[in-house]
Q: What sequence folds into this?
């Protein structure tokens, strides 16, 4: 019985001391971590909406969405962080869309764990550049091996078709969500 | 048992004689996973060394207070506390590095190198010796991760610590930054370390044999003179 009590006391003391220590450290670190996260989001918003001068989080929808404004405070579009499955793991994108939701402005890949050297080409400007001013009507399409003909098409990366198509799918799903929010009058 | 080991030896043994990676083959999960570049290897090794040293310090100083039945649970609690500290500090101060190392920082908790040293050393030795042992093991871990990370970065990306070292026409070997490259490089390093050691042992043995033969010969010669 004595041993049991001693065991309980020892573990409790260690637990309490480490809990107290960690809450101190966490209190110091949490605002900094939040700041970094916010800075990264802000940087991505201005990258996908180069003409934006200001932005505001849209509170009326149940997903993360930012409305961006030009210097006269007119709404010029949206920045939508959206994620989905890639080849090996989650791909997280920041999609810049015009206010009518029918044309993309720009694209940034925030997070990905694709195959190094092949799938990771989706973060390069050669790939993301194809989405600039791309028509999204009725949705974004992709072609393989040939130059795209239609204004809503991009060319998939050779050797990384799955990753390229995953990006296109994520964008389309994000746009779908955005459009249904618009129809519901929530934007 | 009387200790024959000097304090300096307590530190030095972790660097080569009992190197956690090349000799004990401990903690290979982060070794293989994060060494795509030299900087990742260094960061991982420093984080591990911090956790190892702090845990050794605490555990060796309270080793007589912990009941044997709950020692592993206590070690894990203490180790987990320090790992969480490292994780939070890295996220707050070095967000880029923290992102590159991903889940491998929280996973230091289950690194068998750390728990192994607590069980094998800190729970039985004085505070000073435990800290020296932890620092030595950490240094050995750092060397191993740096060598592995540098080699993989050199062949896989043509750089070391981000500095271009390979000529422009060099086509990076993709396999080196993939998991297979980690296994290949580590295997070759194991082989190199072992063959060096065997050679050293052989030279020492030959030296002793030569010495013995020489002495025997001299004895015979002097015997003849008599």
A:
């Amino acid at each position: 019985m004595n041993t049991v009590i001693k065991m309980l006391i020892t573990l409790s003391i260690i637990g309490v001391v480490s809990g107290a220590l960690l809450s101190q450290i966490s209190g110091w670190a949490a605002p900094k971590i939040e700041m970094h996260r916010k800075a990264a989001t802000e940087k991505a918003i201005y990258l996908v909406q180069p003409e934006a001068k200001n932005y505001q989080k849209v509170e009326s929808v149940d997903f993360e969405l930012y409305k961006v404004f030009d210097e006269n405070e007119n709404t010029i579009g949206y920045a939508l962080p959206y994620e989905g499955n890639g080849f090996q793991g989650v791909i997280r994108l920041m999609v810049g869309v015009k206010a009518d939701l029918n044309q993309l402005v720009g694209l940034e890949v925030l997070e990905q764990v694709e195959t190094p050297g092949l799938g990771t080409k989706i973060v390069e400007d050669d790939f993301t550049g194809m989405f600039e001013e791309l028509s999204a009507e009725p949705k974004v399409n992709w072609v393989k091996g040939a130059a795209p003909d239609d204004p809503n098409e991009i060319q998939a990366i050779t050797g990384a078709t799955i990753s390229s198509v995953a990006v296109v799918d994520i964008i389309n799903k994000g746009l779908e969500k955005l459009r249904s929010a618009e129809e519901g009058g929530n934007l | 048992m009387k200790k024959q080991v000097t304090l300096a030896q307590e530190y030095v043994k972790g660097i080569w004689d009992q190197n956690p990676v090349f000799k004990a083959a401990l903690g290979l999960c982060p070794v293989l996973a994060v060494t795509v570049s030299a900087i990742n290897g260094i960061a991982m090794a420093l984080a591990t060394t911090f956790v190892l040293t702090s845990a050794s310090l605490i555990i060796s100083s309270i080793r007589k207070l912990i009941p044997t039945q709950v020692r592993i649970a206590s070690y894990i609690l203490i180790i987990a506390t320090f790992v969480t500290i490292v994780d939070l500090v890295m996220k707050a101060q070095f967000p880029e590095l923290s992102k590159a190392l991903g889940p491998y920082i929280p996973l230091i908790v289950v690194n068998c190198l750390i728990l192994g040293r607590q069980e094998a050393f800190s729970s039985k030795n004085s505070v000073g010796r435990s800290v020296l042992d932890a620092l030595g093991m950490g240094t050995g871990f750092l060397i191993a991760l740096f060598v592995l990370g540098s080699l993989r970065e050199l062949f896989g990306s043509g750089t070391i610590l981000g500095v271009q070292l390979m000529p422009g026409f060099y086509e990076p070997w993709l396999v080196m930054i993939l998991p297979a490259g980690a296994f290949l490089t580590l295997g070759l390093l194991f082989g190199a370390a072992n063959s060096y050691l065997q050679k050293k042992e052989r030279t020492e043995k030959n030296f002793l044999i030569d010495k013995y033969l020489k002495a025997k010969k001299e004895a015979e010669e002097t015997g003849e003179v008599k």
Observations:
- Chain A touches chain B at residues 3, 6-7, 10-11, 14-15, 18, 21-22, 25-26, 28-29, 32-33, 36, 40, 115-117 (CB under 8 Å).
